[in-house]
Amino acid sequence: METEVVLRWARRTMAGQGCTPLERGYRYQHGVRVGRLAVWLGRALGVDEATLERLYVAGVLHDVGKSGYRGEEPHGPRGGRIVRTVLRRWLSAEEREGIARMVEHHYARPRSRWYVGREKPQWPDDILIIQDADVLDHHGAMYFASCLRYAQKEGIPAEQFFRTFWDSPEERAERTEAMRSLNFTASRTELRRRFDEARRLMRKV
Predict the structure, then answer these.
(1) pTM listed for this prediction
(2) Interacting residues of 85 by C-beta distance below 8 A, sequence separation 6+
């Protein structure tokens, strides 16, 4: 796998895109963090080095289907198609399919509320690892930093924002769902640590 070439392509394609005006290049920066978390979790689970490399690339690319796109197609399948077509020059057929599947299914979490009462998908561990890494990066200290930026943008004192937002029923439900949707004990332990760190930071605001 021509990893460095793929990662340079990802940076060129995604670094100029963002989901808000608050963090330029969010899609790419979020992807890098997810890639690193996926490698950390993969190592904790005893994954081999070749798979760790694929996990990192898939983590970086997991939201590539969102970058610069405003249509209605779900971003997972769109991202999987991008991996299968645009990146075929630098990936073998096996590498391409493995990474595409991780990108395509990164939000189809079998433990989430979406699958309550439905048949749960039976994903291999690499897809489950990417799912957990994505959830982890959306919570904890990174979440805290995002809240600070939103509060500043809206002109709301940070203390007031945290008191009304973090403790709202919607956010409590969101944190419960995030924990429930995780697939591995190591992920749940890390998410609890991130929630505790966010609470510690809030006490200092």
Answers:
(1) 0.90
(2) none
Query: Within 10 A of 122 (CB to CB), how many other CB atoms are there?
Result: 8
Query: How far, in whole angstroms, is CA 198 from its chain's centroid?
Result: 18
Token pair recorded at residue 159: 């203390």
What total number of domains does the chain contain?
A: 1
Q: Can you give the pLDDT at residue 155?
A: 86
In this structure, which amino acid lies at residue 91?
L
Give residues with Cβ within 8 angstroms of 163, minimum separation 6: none
Instruction: Quote the domain boundaries for residue 119.
Output: 3-203
The DSSP code sequence of 99-156 is HHHHHHTTT--TTSGGGTTSPPP---HHHHHHHHHHHHHTSTHHHHHHHHHHHHHHT-
Residue 13: name the closest of 78, 61, 58 by CA: 61
CATH number at residue 165: 1.10.3210.10
Q: Is residue 10 a contact partner of residue 62, using CB atoms and an 8 Å limit?
A: no
Task: Tell me if 79 sits within 8 A of 104, measured CB to CB.
Answer: yes
Per-residue model confidence as pLDDT tens digits over 150-169: 788 788 887 777 777 777 88
- Decide: 195 and 138 in contact? Cβ < 8 Å: no
Fill in the amino acid letter for 54: R
- Non-local CB neighbours of 124 within 8 Å, separated by 6+ positions: none
Q: 88-106: per-residue pLDDT in tens?
A: 999 999 999 999 999 999 9
